[in-house]
């Protein structure tokens, strides 16, 4: 629709439903975004889900195939989506950001490797935590400065200090690159 | 306050918090010794680790505070009674990959950049940059409200003239009658100390000024710890 909201009620399939401890009900919905939606990185998505009680608080952790990469992005590397109580409507509003492209993750990894002087044996994955690689707060800030130079972006100080994994850095970079006024190649 | 240091640790370790608390805690109001192994821990709403006093009557005034910092080769734990504490350690020889002044301009306050810019020897400049980094980190950690509560460029830490290792905090305020001037509030509220540990590290300590003893100097006791085995007194010093 014109305001950037897409309804995909028919695309929602319920895969699994189970109770978890504490009386909560967990339902797993599988949502395949069609290829034409691959470019939606910050658009909100609303859909109808059956059996939603308006007084409950819901938290949604999504698994998404993004951009034909056929990569399953796990919740830990994906911005988890949570939303509070909603009153009357049964529409749930989500913000889905596709996780960063593998090339970006790779470039971030290279910069991290250089800043922390890691040996080539040290395995780096998107989930690698800076602190686990031996980075302290000063290293994190230096990494962010190097990323700013590499990608020609500007990172807010509080964002800089809150990045903890390679994936988070890559996601933030792609977010900032996309927001730049004129598209510039990196 | 007490700082315990453990040196020569390998990179992958997990810190057992009770093991860093000195073997004999000072007795507090109830005049009982507390067994460190009985302590429980939790995180505050911003993620700062704290002692969980489950049976305390007045939890706004916690008897014991601590904060931890580490590098590749050293872990430091600062412990205080009644006042919040923040501690940060860095290797003295740590190289900064970026130009020190460019780094400072990006993150530090204008006054701090000016201070660093006046230092001609690049080695001294690098060391002072690191000292400032540890002091600023120690303050943010003492505050315990996350980095967004005190962005680095909103406060200045400067040497107190005539003291060795004494610093104070000035907060810059942009609300002023003269738009080009920033008013600075350099009143107390927080105390700082900068020390060298194990000849290899700078350690900055920040504690909140105790209302009962406002303006009293900070007494810092440094011990080297082998967890659960021994504490070795290294130094005791007063920071004015």
From TrEMBL, chain A:
SUPFAM superfamilies the record matches: ACP-like
Cellular component annotations (GO), alphabetically ordered: chloroplast
Residue ranges constituting the Carrier domain according to the UniProt record: 102-177
Keyword line: Chloroplast, Fatty acid biosynthesis, Fatty acid metabolism, Lipid biosynthesis, Lipid metabolism, Phosphopantetheine, Phosphoprotein, Plastid, Transit peptide
Record flagged with keyword Phosphoprotein: yes
PROSITE patterns: CARRIER (PS50075), PHOSPHOPANTETHEINE (PS00012)
Pathway participation: Lipid metabolism; fatty acid biosynthesis
Molecular-function GO terms, alphabetical: acyl carrier activity; phosphopantetheine binding
Protein location: Plastid, Chloroplast
Major site of localization recorded for this protein: plastid
Physiological role: Carrier of the growing fatty acid chain in fatty acid biosynthesis.
Sequence similarity: Belongs to the acyl carrier protein (ACP) family.
NCBIfam families on file: acyl_carrier (TIGR00517)
Name the UniProt record assigns to this protein: Acyl carrier protein
Automatic annotation (TrEMBL), chain B:
Entry keyword annotation includes Iron: no
Pfam families: ACPS
EC number per UniProt: 2.7.8.7
Keyword Transferase: yes
GO cellular component, one term: cytosol
Descriptive protein name: holo-[acyl-carrier-protein] synthase
Domain 4'-phosphopantetheinyl transferase as annotated: residue spans: 84-174
One GO BP annotation of this record: lysine biosynthetic process via aminoadipic acid
GO molecular function per UniProt: holo-[acyl-carrier-protein] synthase activity; magnesium ion binding
Annotated InterPro entries: 4-PPantetheinyl_Trfase_dom, 4-PPantetheinyl_Trfase_dom_sf, P-Pant_transferase_sf
Keywords assigned: Transferase
Enzyme kind, highest EC tier: transferase
């Amino acid at each position: 629709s014109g305001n950037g909201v897409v309804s995909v009620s028919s695309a929602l399939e319920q895969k699994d439903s189970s109770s978890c401890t504490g009386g909560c009900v967990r339902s797993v919905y599988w949502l395949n975004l069609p290829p034409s939606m691959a470019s939606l990185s910050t658009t909100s998505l609303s859909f109808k889900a059956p059996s939603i009680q308006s007084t409950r608080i819901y938290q949604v952790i999504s698994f998404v195939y993004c951009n034909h990469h056929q990569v399953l992005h796990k919740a830990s590397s994906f911005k988890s989506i949570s939303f509070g109580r909603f009153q009357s409507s049964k529409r749930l509003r989500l913000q889905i950001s596709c996780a960063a492209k593998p090339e970006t993750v790779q470039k971030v990894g290279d910069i991290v490797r250089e800043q922390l002087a890691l040996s080539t044996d040290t395995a780096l994955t998107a989930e690698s935590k800076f602190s686990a690689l031996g980075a302290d707060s000063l290293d994190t800030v230096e990494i962010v400065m190097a990323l700013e130079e590499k990608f020609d972006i500007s990172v807010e100080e509080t964002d800089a200090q809150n990045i903890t994994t390679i994936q988070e850095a890559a996601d933030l970079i792609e977010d900032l690159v996309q927001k730049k006024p004129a598209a510039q190649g990196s | 306050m007490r700082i315990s240091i453990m040196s020569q640790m390998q990179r992958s370790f997990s810190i057992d918090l009770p093991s860093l608390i000195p073997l004999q805690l000072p007795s507090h109001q109830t005049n009982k010794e507390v067994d460190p192994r009985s302590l429980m821990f939790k995180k505050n709403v911003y993620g700062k680790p704290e002692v969980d006093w489950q049976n305390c009557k007045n939890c706004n005034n916690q008897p014991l505070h601590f904060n931890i910092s580490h590098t590749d080769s050293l872990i430091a734990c600062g412990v205080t009674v009644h006042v919040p504490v923040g501690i940060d350690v860095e290797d003295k020889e740590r190289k900064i990959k970026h130009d020190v002044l460019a780094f400072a301009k990006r993150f530090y306050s204008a006054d701090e950049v000016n201070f660093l810019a006046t230092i001609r020897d690049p080695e001294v400049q690098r060391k002072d940059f690191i000292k400032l980094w540890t002091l600023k980190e120690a303050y943010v950690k003492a505050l315990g409200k996350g980095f967004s509560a005190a962005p680095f460029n909103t406060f200045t830490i400067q040497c107190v003239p005539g003291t060795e290792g004494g610093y104070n905090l000035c907060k810059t305020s942009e609300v002023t009658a003269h738009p080009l001037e920033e008013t600075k509030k350099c009143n107390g509220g927080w105390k700082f100390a900068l020390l060298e540990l194990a000849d290899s590290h700078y350690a900055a300590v920040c504690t909140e000024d105790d209302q009962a003893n406002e303006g009293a100097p900070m007494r810092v006791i440094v011990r080297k710890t082998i967890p659960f085995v021994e504490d070795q007194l290294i130094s005791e010093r007063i920071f004015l």
